[in-house]
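Cross-check.
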Amino acid sequence: MSVRLASELRALEAAIEAWTREGDLDTWPPSPEVELRALYVQRVVRTLAREPGLARRTIERLPRVWRFEVRSNVSASAALFRHVPPVDSAEGFRTARPEPAGALLGWFTEGERRFGVDREMLAAIMLVETRFGRVVSRSYAGATGPMQFIPSTWTAYGMGGDVRDERDAILGAANYLRASGAPEDERGALYAYNPVDAYVVAVSSYAEVMRRNPNAFFAYYNWQVFVRTVDGDVQLTGPGA
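Predicted model, tokenized:
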């Protein structure tokens, strides 16, 4: 598995470089090659997150350049798996096409400029919450929108915007995180956003991967929506869904 994974990671990195250099990041759809290779890596990460022994052996055999990224992704997924139990079925989950990667990246950058909150943190939150807007179902806690605000928090920090609008939601999240201690206390701000240790671990891990490798954002953007059911994973978006 480690040989194939390393090969796919190299190919994914090259495909992202080509897409960002020659493609149009402000339109849909994304690069088909990036989408397919990112999906393969995502599937492997989900498998390793469920099998700690296999994960350890696989990561140890990877080239050093990929170990941190894969270890971080597996740890983040494992933390979320431990926190969120499987559901009976995927019925009731609603999905939609996300905004283009370039548009989202621009809004994350705007949030960083206006509020001082790292764009990588904003991107990581949106990745965990809704797979960059692909999930449009209301959460079990009543949160809504691409950054998953409960109504009272949105009223306080949404600056009069539309909670379902991607730009408004991203800027509202940046405003809330700044008020909660970011960037000086990122973990504290994340805990205020969602007071669950697994959530803080996952978001922090994904953000750090993107800080070390900016191309990781484009890989994460192409991660798809999976629902973990008692009968196994159900893929709701992307190739093969």
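Residues 2-22 form the longest helix (21 residues). The CA atoms of residues 25 and 181 lie 32 Å apart. Passed to J.P. for a second look.
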